[in-house]
Design a protein that fits this description.
CATH class of chain A: Alpha Beta
CATH architecture of chain A: 3-Layer(aba) Sandwich
Order of helices and strands of chain A: HEHEEEHHHHEHHHEHHHHEEEEH
Radius of gyration of chain A: 18 Å
Oligomer: homotetramer
Distance between the termini of chain A: 19 Å
CATH superfamily of chain A: DD-peptidase/beta-lactamase superfamily
Helix content of chain A: 40-55%
Structural class of chain A: alpha+beta
Chain lengths: 304, 304, 304, 304
């Protein structure tokens, strides 16, 4: 199977769709990205890389970063983690407070905003300088010392962050956030602002396709068991209130961000990423989802 | 990998757990089943079968039957089906009416009761004798002409069926059920009452592991694409409000029933079934879930 | 204060509004009523009556009938009644099932459909021929032996009664309806179909302004204490999800029906009724609410 | 009717109940109040006052203060106010965020916390020194220049104010709070901390029984129309999720606070207040509610 040719075919095929969807504009910094941007990248577990489009251009990975903070929290707390966050799909929008009230401050899973805030609270309690620890990890995983937070985006997130602030105080009121809300949000907004390219992403998440070890350096990042757990959670909770649709169309565990990026994993085979800023109604990249669907259809790839 | 030995090891290992959980007692006919029952069966796509325990003893498959009616409706309506039912996990209990009200009578997915009722309404509109059509299909798939409805269970379901009756009238009020409620419920209660053994089940669902073709006879039941879609829906919606936990622990798409049965699929490899009537808090077989978890751990099987 | 002149002024003033709103059309029998109909009537506790418009023309009183069944149930069960129904406003639409699920089949109050169904279940358990008992009471209260059920409306309610059927089966599933749903609904649909004029209504409810005794015959219908309780419940729960707006604009306890009728009570002084079939968004008579607001403003009447 | 004797009888009658209920302990400053405290006071519109118990001892009036801020906001914004807050009972707990999410940041009424926060936002936008303006008004109404904020309570509210902070950021995210959340909360927490006695309260609210004019000085505070509107809102929304029960038992519009105070109004006749710190399950004073019920029963007082 020639992945490079397939990516190029997809790039051609999705061209008429570029411009569809809506660029996230809840913060000005994101709204300014041209909707026509497009990139895809693949990294296989035998260490081959393929890409098309602006695959080395960095963009705001936003909620994709929730995998990093969840993985770190899981390494640190292990089974105890599940006293503070659930593993079930929420069935509601990513920033809803309703379920949180019914379930007394225990977020449904680590990939909705509420759950990610609890993860950042855990990291804040665990590390002296959690922002630096997170950044060091991401740089190591992506094998790219230039990966960085985008301070303009982080500041913009903070300015327009009243909903997340409401979530954090709500959870704190239930006793499931232990640190000062401003501190937790500072880490959260920075994590969301991580600026990475499609190639950075497939490198950074190669361990999820490779039983927990980085492809190339073969360094153990997480256990094989934890890898499966992350992938299963991505499958059932990774794409907001469209997990069923994503599982149905793409057939791989994945995580999206409102910056227009998506990462998906074919365990034992490869990691694939895509970037296109126009979002569909569920807040997932419209062209990105289509491109992944084309890829798994053309390559007959699916975990199912 | 010697599946037979592994099944026997599991049978030994779960012995201390038999008796835990709670046998479904919402209808008298189910409450009478001894909690100590246990069986497992596997059928591989190279047509080998393995089993332990009471694997030829029939039990009430209950919600597992929702796969049959969904598959039939999908064959008949194809894309149009999705105007009448969603593909997302519900995040709430299997028989909740709340989401249905917010979403104006379109059930979240075909595997919660509301969704299954819409499937049976579709079958009622499509076939002259839907009960017979369904039974013929199941018998053919299981390669067992003796598979039958359990009329005692069906009658008991009907007697204690006020919640399902409420669901059906509610959906009908929204215009998403077209036939008489009594007729739809008659099919639904009979479908739930299907009496099958663990071996029947792995045979009947072998096509889901085999790209839509029955193992052995190699008959095309559904398309390869439809097979993936069913498996992906089972993954995200097959085990009530515990799909995350099931994906996390077992790592395979599956469907449970309150009769204590569970079926799970490893696409391209095998179908596995288990039966143990004691249920956990989510309404899934407690020992059955544990047995499947042991199996995928011992065999290092997972789609992730 | 010359009530007759005031009623005539109001009749003149609301003329430009006639035709606004929407006639209830969930059942064909109601949809056929001309939207231009208008009537008002008053009966004071010193036994004087005033009226304008079609005040002797009968219309479908619909939910206004819930006062009769609640009053009967309260007489029969007294304090025990409150184990089966609440006394709080629901904050949601009159036919919602959501709250009912959260609160395990105990309706919020006797004036939403769910609560009224529980009242009719109580009457069904209490009387040999509950329809006749109810009718006898209403005829006696209205001092009009011609008051009757409208069988065409009752039949139409039954035909289009899937939502109420869903409610009834849902409550029965929670154990708060003891009789056959069809029997309970038969009484409920007949009660809703009661056909009465504005004058019938002020006569029938005169006891609510007169400490429980009928005006004229001075017959004790309910105790003084029960009278206050009914009026307080009408104030907080009588007009669907617009009780605050009604209290604010009209300032009297009252009950509306989707037939366009409203009854309001000024304790110690009078009962007033109005009929105009066009409904506002909350399902209350648009012109009727306006007419009552004009009346209480012009007469400086208010319980506040 | 000798009000003084009746108050003394009630004081005697409720003695066995003192100690029941639970003193609010969500902030330490409130938890320290002895549960045995009791006081009642009445002021009639012919300017007579009666009282029993610690009627001159100040306590934290908490949510009773919401009447002051609502009245001020209503005076300032008039009809426009209703674009920012509803007039309907909420049907849920006083500090719930659920309804707020469904209704996009428009609180159900001015007496739940969310609504009161919007009122304080309006006052913050309107006045240069809103805390002082509010205090001046309350002192004038109570005819007591010593009425003051309790800074210890206000500070404690702030320390334990995460739920209110969550509410405020949530509303701000929907665009219904215009000022900085810290500023709005500062006013809100101070308002809640107002320390007043039972006699202060009946004097301060005498205008609500007297068509908007203070009793004694006869100064117009609000219009007659606004007075009715406030009373009607107190009736349908003044006592959290127990408005039906309060209307049913006490039969007067009223407002309670978690400090154990309750104020109730008999329009055209008197204002009555009670203080007893033990709360019932709805967060209203247990003994206070009972005392008011005894009063309206003994005096046959009720608006119904």
């Amino acid at each position: 199977m020639n992945y490079q040719t397939i990516l190029e075919d997809i790039q051609e095929e999705i061209k008429p769709l570029l411009g569809q969807g809506k660029v996230a504009n809840y913060i000005p910094a994101l709204g300014a990205i041209p909707i026509s941007k497009f990139a895809m990248a693949i990294k296989t577990i035998d260490n081959k890389e393929y890409s098309v489009g602006d695959a080395e251009e960095s963009f705001s990975i936003q909620s994709i970063s929730k995998i990093f903070s969840f993985a770190l929290a899981l390494k640190e707390l292990r089974a105890e983690l599940w006293e503070r966050v659930g593993k079930e799909p929420s069935g509601t929008a990513f920033n809803s407070l309703i379920q949180l009230e019914f379930e007394h401050g225990i977020p449904r899973n680590p990939f909705i905003n509420a759950g990610a805030l609890v993860m950042t609270d855990i990291l804040t309690s665990t590390y002296n300088d959690p922002k630096q620890t997170l950044l060091d990890l991401v740089r190591e995983l992506a094998d790219n010392p230039k990966v960085n937070f985008d301070e303009v985006v982080a500041k913009s997130e903070n300015e327009w962050g009243d909903r997340n602030r409401a979530l954090a105080y709500f959870i704190k009121d239930f006793g499931n956030i232990n640190n000062a809300v401003d501190e937790v949000l500072d880490l959260y907004f920075h994590q969301c602002s991580l600026s990475m390219s499609c190639l950075d992403l497939v490198r950074a998440f190669s361990c999820l396709a490779n039983a927990g070890k980085t492809v190339g350096a073969n360094k153990v990042i997480i256990s094989e068991r934890q890898t499966k757990r992350i992938n299963s959670l991505l499958m059932t909770c990774g794409t907001y209130d469209a997990v069923g649709d994503f599982a149905y169309r793409v057939g791989l565990p994945g995580k999206s961000g409102v910056g227009g990026g998506i990462v998906a994993i074919m365990p034992g085979h490869f990691v694939i990423s895509v970037w296109s800023p126009g979002l569909n109604e569920s807040g997932n990249s419209l062209v990105g989802t289509k491109a992944l669907e084309l890829f798994t259809t053309k390559t007959k790839t699916s975990i199912f």
